[in-house]
Design a protein that fits this description.
Blueprint: E1 11-16, E2 19-24, E3 29-35, E4 38-39, E5 57-58, E6 64-66, E7 69-72, E8 75-78, E9 88-90, E10 100-105, E11 108-115, E12 125-134, E13 137-146, E14 152-154, E15 157-158, E16 161-162, E17 173-175, E18 178-184, E19 191-196, E20 207-208, E21 215-221, E22 229-234, E23 240-245, E24 251-255, E25 269-274, H1 280-283, E26 290-292, E27 297-306
Antiparallel strand pairs: 1-2, 2-3, 3-4, 5-15, 6-9, 7-8, 10-11, 11-12, 12-13, 13-27, 14-26, 16-25, 17-20, 17-22, 18-19, 18-21, 21-24, 22-23, 23-27, 24-25
């Protein structure tokens, strides 16, 4: 990245079938996604420091590692606490990394970086990100490849804030076909018990969001014959956005974007397909943690499309 580049990094434009997207190299971030003149994600300015992780790629873990501490392969590790108010390690290690551009075509861009072995994560993993547009929307694939000599814990996911249309989250309708929700503590969002969806978390049919607060991970999705799950948010006029993802993403975090800053407050709905649950570095493979053997790779894909 040159010294005169915008603060979000080098800007990469792609377009196809009426869709346009702007990718920023810092965090391999989806900065803008539009169909025609309609925003499908909440955008931010190229020279703005990316707010609230909008559009960032999360790796080598999404969501939180509680207290920044975990044990893996017989060793204890302690990560820097990047969510100070709750004392957790938040959203991985590449969100503020300037990715290198590998390819940039009219409808496609690929970026890469390496998570170097470091205190708290003594593993070397290459992270490869592809964004591709076609008539079905924006397809994102994130691949982690372990180039080190020991197994490595791995997880990934995106952090888009979907924009269904006019109004705020309160005015939109959500369809979230998940059978289970991971309960969390109110103060620190520490995962506790996985339970059947209930009350305000039963969103298996189209449900007005209204004033409800959600910042939870869901699993047990209804999937089609190809293993694809879909989460849809729509505005009153019937337009909206859909996120689809395959079985490699067994979880999705949904957040109503409640925030003390009025500009950010409930301005978009975070829908984050994830390969693993929050705090999977502690919960392990039962909650989706991927263990990358030396030389092994793991890929996950999700798609954002207009409704």
């Amino acid at each position: 990245m040159s010294n005169d580049a915008p603060r979000s990094g080098t800007q990469l434009s792609i377009a196809a079938a009426g869709y346009t997207a702007e990718i920023a190299t810092v965090g391999a971030t989806l900065r803008v996604l539009r169909q025609g003149d309609r925003d499908l994600v909440v955008p931010f300015a190229a020279d703005e420091v990316r707010p609230v992780f909008r559009g960032a790629v999360l790796a080598p873990w999404p969501n939180r590692v509680v207290d920044g501490r975990y044990s893996f392969d017989g060793q204890d590790h302690e990560l820097a606490l990047t969510e100070p108010k709750r004392s957790h390690a938040l959203h991985g290690l590449v969100a503020w990394t300037d990715f290198a551009v590998e390819e940039h075509e009219a409808d496609r861009v690929t970026l890469t970086t390496t998570v170097q072995a470091q205190e708290g994560y003594p593993f070397r993993v290459v992270v490869h990100v592809e964004y591709r547009l076609d008539a079905e929307g924006l397809h994102t694939t994130v691949t982690g490849t372990n180039t080190g000599d020991r197994p490595a814990p791995w997880g990934t996911g995106p952090h888009p804030y979907l924009s269904a249309g006019a109004g705020s989250v309160d005015d939109w309708t959500l369809t979230l076909p998940a059978a289970e929700v991971l309960e969390v503590t109110e103060d620190r969002l520490v995962p506790t018990e996985l339970v059947p969806v209930h009350d305000e978390f039963d969103l298996r049919t189209a449900t007005p969001i209204g004033p409800r607060f959600i910042d939870h991970a869901f699993t047990g999705f209804d999937r089609d014959a190809d293993g694809i799950a879909a989460i849809t948010v729509t505005a009153a006029d019937g337009h909206g956005v859909r996120v689809t993802f395959g079985t490699e993403c067994g979880w999705a975090q949904v957040h109503t974007a409640d925030h003390v800053v009025p500009e950010y407050h409930r301005s978009g709905l975070a829908v984050e397909p994830m390969t693993c649950a929050p705090d999977a570095f502690n919960a392990g493979e039962d909650r989706g943690l991927v263990v990358l053997a030396p030389g092994a790779a793991h890929a996950a894909t999700w798609t954002i499309a207009a409704v």
